[in-house]
Amino acid sequence: MTKKRLFWAAVILAVLAGVVYNSWPLGYALNPLVTHSGGLASELEALHQPYNWLFVLLDTLCGVGVIAAAAMLWHRAIDLMHKVVLVNFALFGLLTIADALLPMTCEPSLTVCPSLGQQPLLILHGVASIGSAIFLFVSAFIMWWHMHHRVGRAIMTALMVGWGVSGLLTLYFFFRPGPGYLAQDYYLILCGIWVALLPHMLWRLTHSRVLASELEANY
Fold it and tell me: From the centroid of its chain, how far is CA 171?
């Protein structure tokens, strides 16, 4: 497969991964009990929940798609920074798979759950979930920090501001009662957008670097 075809295959995989990562709207039709109770998206994957296999499958497919897209984009990594972005992107995919395959055993929005000490799988689930969020944010932050193209910079800055708002909302609903699940839904949408955009932004960054190098060589 040529480099151009590899790139477009990565674009398609990333877009599909960003879409299936946001499977939570299906909960309104397939599991309204959890959705209407204000449960988090992870509760749709909890053991014994209806259609939990579907949500697990979609998150797993997202992770596989992200890892495959990162591998297909590796040839475009022209320096260490690009490689760090793709490694963080791939680690997000890997931990998303782990998160999906370690589903919750109890739904906090529906019942009183045992203490964390009695739920070792829930701890692993939480570690995988938090780790995937960190790696994805790091990939976006590094890209934003090095993005010098005006249009790309504006898009990345908008995403950074969006993530900042998401963090503030999460912190607010942590201390005050309210629809905290809406903050998570907003965050998942942001993540899905970045997953879908990463190949395009990487192309913008490498393209601008190559043009800059060519201009320097001509002078």
Answer: 19
pTM more than 0.85 = yes
Q: Which of 182, 162, 180 is nearest to 171 (CA)?
A: 180
pLDDT digits (tens, 9 = 90+) for 28-59: 999 988 887 777 788 898 888 899 999 999 99
29 C-beta neighbours (distance < 10 Å), count: 9
Q: What is the DSSP letter of 112?
A: P
Reading the block at residue 103, the tokens are 């589903």
Residue-wise DSSP of 179-209: -HHHHHHHHHHHHHHHHHHHHHHHHHHHHHH
Report how far Cα 106 is from the mean position of its chain's Cα atoms. 24
Q: What b/e readout covers 151-176, taking b as 16+ CB neighbours within 10 angstroms?
A: ebbebbeebbebbeebeebeeebeee
HSE-CB of 12 using CA atoms within 13 angstroms: 6
Dihedral (Cα; 95, 97, 100, 103), 10-degree rounding: -60
Q: What's the CA gap between 69 and 15, in Å, rounded?
A: 10
Cα–Cα distances (Å) from 11 to 4, 14, 61, 161, 165, in that order, read 11, 5, 15, 24, 27
Query: Using CA atoms, how far apart are residues 190 and 196, in angstroms rounded to an integer?
Result: 10
